[in-house]
TrEMBL record:
InterPro entries assigned: BesD/HalB-like (IPR056470), Oxoglu/Fe-dep_dioxygenase_dom (IPR005123)
PROSITE patterns: FE2OG_OXY
One Pfam entry name: HalD
Protein name stated in the entry: 2OG-Fe(II) oxygenase superfamily
Organism whose genome encodes this protein: Rubellimicrobium thermophilum DSM 16684
The Fe2OG dioxygenase domain, residue ranges: 12-121
Amino acid sequence: MGKPALHAMDDPLARVNVMEYRRGEALNWHFDRSEFTTTILLQAPEAGGLFEYRRDLRSPEDPNHEGVARLLRGEDPELRRIRLEPGALNIFRGRDTAHRVTPVEGDRPRLVAVFSYFDRPGVRMTPDEQRGFYGRAA
Ligand SMILES: [Fe+2]
């Protein structure tokens, strides 16, 4: 990432999360608020649960609404899709790269650990942000 150091978030709720996607569950297209995200796939589903992304769809200077609309219509030829293997470490710059997880198929859930790092120590969510993300403050 070109950073001199990385610090785990100093937040008891946001530092590490494990997300479970069961049959039919997915994560819709979005951009991340953080500059990059670090994940490890703990368990792969039997099928589906693919990671799809479209690199550099926007920039801080250009929100590229037309390009976002093209992606949402399923007409972007630059869309990429990967099937992560269990144990795969994925370091992903999601602020300007749109991404989603396709619906999980089968009985085995997709389990992914999400780690939140920053280039400075002591970063925490506000209590309002914690309530928005997790339904409670800590
Ligand atoms: Fe994301």
